[in-house]
Write a structure and sequence with these properties.
The complex is a heterodimer of chains A (309) and B (577). Chain A has 309 residues and is an all-alpha fold. Chain A has helices at 2-10, 14-24, 30-52, 95-131, 133-148, 151-162, 167-175, 180-193, 197-204, 209-245, 256-265, 274-302. Helices cover 70% and strands 0% of the residues of chain A. In chain A, helix 4 (95-131) packs parallel to helix 7, helix 8 (180-193) runs antiparallel to helix 10 (209-245) and helix 11 packs antiparallel against helix 12 (274-302). Chain A is globular. Chain B has 2 domains: 2-257, P-loop containing nucleotide triphosphate hydrolases (Rossmann fold, 3-Layer(aba) Sandwich), CATH 3.40.50; 278-576, P-loop containing nucleotide triphosphate hydrolases (Rossmann fold, 3-Layer(aba) Sandwich), CATH 3.40.50. Chain B starts with a strand and ends with a strand.
Chain lengths: 309, 577
């Protein structure tokens, strides 16, 4: 009510008020909301799809091969049917079912790899920043060396040696390459934070090292951790999809990358079977846009200087 | 003739909680060649007013009414100029000398290039030899050698950087110079030199000067007229003499009385004698045995020894400029860093060799108040956390209700209303409230020794006396011995029982405050006291030449430090090696 009277007398528009509210409460950030919405939508496809659509359609020969989506015709002149609304692939698998099963799988690999990477990063970053000295040197050199190694190269060798693996194994392998940047980020923050007034106050209060690290410092790192986590999810998914498109990774579990690999491998590009590779690609793109938006939004949350009024 | 006429100026900042009137109905004229000071606390609108004259208000602030007429551009209202016309006005007609010179210079450009930048932006192409000549001239004008132009900012000291900023500000001979707390990051000795330099160049080019600040003493020594601002309003305006000798507004009176004077009346009403600690025994409370601290090739603290007997609580002041080693001493006493040689003993035990329960007891008995009240609270927790946690950790709490009661009592003891400060987040409290909460925290823990490291240097002037009184009460009413680390000799004079003056890690003068500060013997102590800007027109600061001579003298002292002992106080014994 008070706001409204001010609005009239000072001629502040409703739009301005909305922007200021956003400034005061950074979590009401449109980028963050849109990004989270897109990702939740993909998760919803996975959950609702399993309820309202038959997940068994991912198996070979569930329908006619190379069917077009509804409203389109394939090369044989057959119109798409509602039995397979997004068409079928070269082995007769339903594309919609592939997406329902595959998209959450791709997201799962990314999130799990990032979670493992973050845990390693938090542990090593805190150790390096807090203990300093020799420990810091070892951790810093190790992470710097690891950053220079191209992960795809190593992973290709690993996967070729392992053959067929499951999603969790894949996530663990990728996690071995996404702990470096959180380590460096947290180390830098801890180094500057350990000199701050409230950490000194905690030391004066007789706080244990664990208390200082996890009760005093960690809560203030949350925005950074979130941001780093999302960036890592993106990297992990890119790496996973890269491997899958090369034909590596899990052989029997549908993922978006594997679907694209099979499409390319069966000549879907020259046969104009665009729905086979195109729809998974669009979904991947949406996933990345969602992650990017969340990351930009989190950036503005943790760094008030980026916020505009 | 006036350089600038501000009439009925109002500046608003729209926020989601309504519009904040940063400045309201402000009218003032700056005559040619006159120095006008804007004084007030943080948030009083003094910088906002000056920035409006430059049309450099931070978004979303805007001028809601009034006009600013600049006579250098034919008396037009500068609010009506377009962006390009305004660009031409800045630096050429009005120049701005910023607060933090260290952040205002481009770190990858030589000094002379940065001066040339301004000249070229206003005059187009100028011959290199002419640029060279003019940059040397302005540098000479602020007392810098010509070779300084070839240097990068990181090669200069803080005072030199600030003088470079002045040189840039005056290189086009503007009609008006706005200096926004130009010396707040400098120590008193450098401050005096920089202010004198600014006054002299301003005199020479005959420009008007707006000096923004919060230090009444500095104003008294630097300006002709004084505008006192409070909450966006001009509460009093007049010549410095008139304002200092006969202030009308209660706020002005408060500002003047908040400046402690050496030899003046004490702002503390010492009543009664401090309680004597019977259980102390014969072992000194705190003892330095030949302690020194070396950082790489720099010796922050030369070997020194002293004994502080805790029986009769004392306040020992350690004064000195930044870099004199006083904060290093504080860190050593708290066990935050270990001495390079010697031992720090607390109740006869080496504090760096304590473990387990003994270390926890040491932490309980030695507490601190730090300089920055904004950093001392974890922004993630309510302020209660900082008070509750140590209370529980040291086993003082019986139950939750006891903790609450102790917190409320401590708040009342430092003059805070518990219902207004507790259960709030740190950013909801002012700096003064936070610093008093830190004092309350120390009170709750009832330590034997308190290290107060510049406890009032970041608090608004009007609150300093109150907080110092709180700290003084810790000694008088609660029997806590205090080491007061400060650069402010005037407060040390009133608060302490014994003063040590530190210079480059050496104790140069030590003794009771009436002797050391009231009648200094060592050249450095005398220089420190002479450099304090007193809010007293009779005590003149001298010219820039004097200040420069004093700085040179300081360089000579650095080579042969010797301690002047000015008498002893029972319970404290100092020896330097």
């Amino acid at each position: 009510m008070a706001d409204q009277t001010v609005t009239q007398s000072e001629e502040v528009t409703a739009k301005q008020i909305r922007r200021m509210k956003r400034f005061d409460n950074p979590w009401r950030n449109p980028k963050l909301i849109w990004g989270a919405g897109i990702l939740l939508g993909i998760v919803a496809i996975g959950i609702l799809g399993r309820i309202f659509w038959d997940p068994d359609l991912v198996f070979t020969g569930s329908g006619m091969t190379r069917q077009a989506p509804v409203g389109f015709e394939n090369l044989r002149g057959q119109a798409g049917t509602w039995a397979h609304p997004l068409g079928t692939d070269g082995a007769g698998r339903d594309v919609l079912a592939l997406l329902i099963i595959g998209a959450p799988n791709s997201l799962f690999v990314g999130v799990l790899a990032s979670l493992i990477g973050m845990s390693i990063g938090i542990f090593l970053g805190f150790s390096a920043g807090f203990i300093r000295g020799r420990t810091d040197d070892v951790i810093r050199v190790l992470s710097d060396v690891m950053i220079t190694i191209p992960p795809l190269l190593i992973l290709v060798v690993f996967q070729a040696a392992y053959g067929d693996i499951n999603l969790t194994m894949m996530a663990i392998l990728i996690a071995a390459f996404v702990w470096q940047s959180p380590t460096r980020l947290i180390r830098a923050q801890v180094l500057s934070m350990r000199e701050s007034g409230y950490v000194q106050m905690a030391r004066l209060s007789g706080a244990s090292t664990m208390h200082i690290m996890f009760r005093e410092m960690l809560p203030n790192l949350v925005p950074y951790l979130f941001g780093s986590f999302i960036a890592n999810v993106t990297t992990s998914i890119v790496t996973a999809v890269g491997l899958e498109v090369l034909g590596l990774g899990p052989q029997r579990i549908p993922t978006l990358g594997r679907t694209i690999y099979e499409a390319i491998n069966s000549g879907a590009l020259i046969q104009n079977l665009w729905w086979w590779w195109g729809i998974p690609t669009i979904l991947l793109a949406l996933m990345f846009i969602g992650l990017l938006l969340i990351n930009l939004g989190l950036d503005e949350v943790s760094n008030p200087r980026l916020r505009k009024l | 003739m006036n350089v600038l006429d501000i009439t009925d100026l109002s500046i608003d900042f729209p926020t989601s909680k309504g519009v904040v009137h940063a400045v309201s109905h402000f009218s003032l004229s700056i005559p040619h060649g006159r120095r006008v000071g804007f004084i007030g606390e943080s948030g009083s609108g003094k910088t906002t007013t000056a920035l409006a004259a430059m049309r450099m208000l931070a978004s979303p602030g805007f001028v809601a009414g009034g006009d600013i007429k600049l006579n250098g551009v034919g008396g037009t209202d500068i609010l009506s100029l377009n962006e390009e016309e305004m660009r031409r006005v800045r630096l050429r007609k009005i120049s701005y000398i910023p607060q933090g010179a260290m952040n205002s210079l481009n770190p990858v450009m030589r000094i002379e290039n940065q001066i040339w930048d301004g000249i070229i932006a206003h005059e187009g192409h100028v011959e290199p030899s002419e640029l060279q000549r003019r940059s040397r001239e302005v540098l000479a004008g602020v007392g810098l050698e010509p070779h300084v132009g070839q240097l990068y900012p990181h090669e200069l000291s803080g005072g030199m950087k600030q003088r470079v900023c002045i040189a840039i500000g005056v290189c086009l001979q503007p009609d008006l110079i706005i200096a926004d707390e130009p010396t707040s990051a400098l120590d008193v000795i450098t401050q005096r030199h920089v202010m004198q330099t600014l006054r002299e160049v301003q005199d020479k080019i005959g420009a008007g000067l707006i000096l923004i600040g919060h230090d009444m003493g500095l104003m008294a020594q630097s300006v002709d007229d004084l505008a006192v601002m409070k909450l966006g309003e001009l509460v009093e305006f007049g010549t410095v003499k008139q304002i200092i000798e006969d202030p009308q507004h209660p706020y002005t009176k408060e500002l003047i009385s908040s400046v402690p004077l050496v030899g003046g009346e004490s702002f503390l009403d010492s009543t009664g004698s401090p309680p004597i600690q019977e259980d102390a025994g014969d072992v000194p409370l705190l003892e330095f045995q030949n302690v020194s601290r070396v950082y790489g090739s720099v010796t922050a603290l030369h070997p020194m020894s002293f004994k502080l007997d805790g029986k009769v609580p004392k306040i020992i002041s350690i004064v000195g400029q930044s870099g004199s080693g006083k904060s290093t001493m504080g860190g050593l006493m708290l066990g935050f860093n270990a001495p390079s040689t010697g031992q720090v003993l607390f109740k006869g035990q080496d504090i760096n060799a304590l473990s387990g329960d003994a270390a926890l007891t040491f932490r309980k008995e030695v507490q601190a108040v730090f300089q920055d009240p904004y950093a001392c609270f974890n922004p993630f927790y309510r302020v209660d956390h900082a008070l509750k946690f140590p209370f529980k950790r040291f086993g003082l709490a019986r139950d939750e209700a006891h903790v609450e009661q102790a917190m409320e009592e401590a708040c009342v003891a430092v003059g805070l209303d518990p219902s207004l400060v507790l259960r709030r987040y740190p950013h909801q409290l002012s700096g003064g409230q936070r610093q008093r909460l830190i004092v309350a925290r120390a009170l709750m823990l009832s330590p034997k020794l308190l290290i107060a490291d510049e406890p009032v240097s970041m608090v608004d002037a009007s609150l300093r006396a109150t907080i110092l009184k709180n700290i003084h009460d810790l000694k008088d009413k609660h029997g806590i011995s205090i080491l007061y680390i400060t650069h402010d000799l005037a407060t040390a004079y009133h608060v302490s029982d014994y003063v040590m003056v530190l210079y480059h890690g050496h104790v140069v003068e030590a003794g009771p405050p009436k002797e050391v500060i009231g009648n200094p013997q060592h050249a450095y102590t005398r220089l420190l006291i002479d450099s304090i800007p007193w809010p007293d027109l009779a005590r003149d600061w001298g010219s820039a030449e004097d200040a420069k001579r004093d700085l040179q003298k300081l360089g000579e002292i650095a080579d042969r430090p010797e301690t002047v002992f000015r008498g002893d106080v029972s319970g404290f014994a100092l020896q330097t090696a």
